């Protein structure tokens, strides 16, 4: 297992429990105790967790792991709104009436609501806001996974390895956003959210990322999935040309939409 993947798992465990022991992390990663101890030391040195006897614990306060996580929903909902709406409309145009789709929580994917509400779709989403919008407007059948409420992102996050709702829902398309996107893959900022999102990656024929041009920035370090798992990326005309070329070189279809900036 690559170091980046081990670090993602370690941070995810630390985020979910008071202390993650070396033995637990060895079991999760298959790495040796010596390797896990080196990983914990490295993450401690860059301020992502606190090294303790026999394992690691989450940090508390303003320099805790939370400072590395995805910005809260309300903080980013109105940012680049024109681009997000144009991207969402282009995504909705790919959907067939009555189709089954999965939509991950996020401010860009939330913008899908008005464009799909009356399409009689079967929608699995972990976004509370999108679910409520679709229930109140139109005639989609909405399915929520089981789990806990992630207050800041207003998402349902399943802590269970076997989520029967997700396992029994198969979709034509999975629409998801991201904290960032770069050569290594789709990047998330919250290790807890990554676990939930990765479960849904396996449940769709096509994986389609909705990312505005601001997401092509070198931020975040937690890889949700490599570019090879993406079928399509929909972005806007502010995306750097070299970034679009990078995606196409990786075999990803790239749709670039124009939009009217918000006045």
UniProtKB/TrEMBL annotation:
<dbReference type="Pfam" id="PF08220">
    <property type="entry name" value="HTH_DeoR"/>
</dbReference>
<dbReference type="Pfam" id="PF00455">
    <property type="entry name" value="DeoRC"/>
</dbReference>
<dbReference type="InterPro" id="IPR001034">
    <property type="entry name" value="DeoR_HTH"/>
</dbReference>
<dbReference type="InterPro" id="IPR036390">
    <property type="entry name" value="WH_DNA-bd_sf"/>
</dbReference>
<keyword id="KW-0238">DNA-binding</keyword>
<keyword id="KW-0804">Transcription</keyword>
<dbReference type="InterPro" id="IPR014036">
    <property type="entry name" value="DeoR-like_C"/>
</dbReference>
<protein>
    <submittedName>
        <fullName>DeoR/GlpR family DNA-binding transcription regulator</fullName>
    </submittedName>
</protein>
<dbReference type="InterPro" id="IPR018356">
    <property type="entry name" value="Tscrpt_reg_HTH_DeoR_CS"/>
</dbReference>
<dbReference type="GO" id="GO:0003677">
    <property type="term" value="F:DNA binding"/>
</dbReference>
<keyword id="KW-0805">Transcription regulation</keyword>
<dbReference type="InterPro" id="IPR050313">
    <property type="entry name" value="Carb_Metab_HTH_regulators"/>
</dbReference>
<dbReference type="InterPro" id="IPR037171">
    <property type="entry name" value="NagB/RpiA_transferase-like"/>
</dbReference>
<feature type="domain" description="HTH deoR-type">
    <location>
        <begin position="3"/>
        <end position="58"/>
    </location>
</feature>
């Amino acid at each position: 297992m690559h170091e980046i993947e081990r670090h993602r798992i370690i941070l995810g465990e630390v985020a979910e429990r008071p202390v993650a022991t070396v033995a637990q992390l060895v079991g999760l990663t298959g790495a040796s105790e010596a390797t896990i101890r080196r990983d914990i030391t490295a993450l401690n040195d860059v301020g992502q967790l606190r090294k303790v006897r026999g394992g690691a614990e989450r940090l508390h306060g303003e320099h805790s792991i939370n400072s590395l996580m995805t910005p809260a929903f309300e903080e980013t909902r109105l940012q680049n709104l024109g681009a997000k709406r144009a991207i969402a409309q282009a995504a909705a145009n790919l959907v067939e009436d009555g189709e089954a789709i999965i939509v991950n929580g996020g401010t860009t994917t939330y913008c899908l609501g008005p464009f799909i509400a009356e399409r009689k779709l079967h929608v699995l989403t972990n976004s509370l806001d999108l679910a409520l919008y679709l229930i109140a407007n139109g005639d989609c059948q909405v399915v929520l996974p089981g789990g806990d409420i992630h207050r800041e992102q207003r998402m349902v996050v399943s802590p269970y390895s076997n989520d029967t709702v997700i396992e029994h829902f198969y979709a034509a398309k999975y629409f998801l956003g991201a904290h960032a996107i770069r050569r290594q893959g789709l990047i998330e900022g919250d290790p807890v959210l990554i676990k939930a999102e990765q479960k849904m990656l396996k449940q769709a024929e096509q994986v389609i990322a909705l990312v505005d041009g601001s997401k092509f920035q070198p931020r975040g370090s937690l890889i949700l999935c490599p570019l090879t798992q993406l079928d399509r990326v929909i972005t806007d005309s502010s995306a750097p040309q070299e970034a679009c070329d990078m995606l196409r070189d990786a075999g990803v279809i790239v749709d670039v939409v124009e939009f009217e900036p918000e006045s």
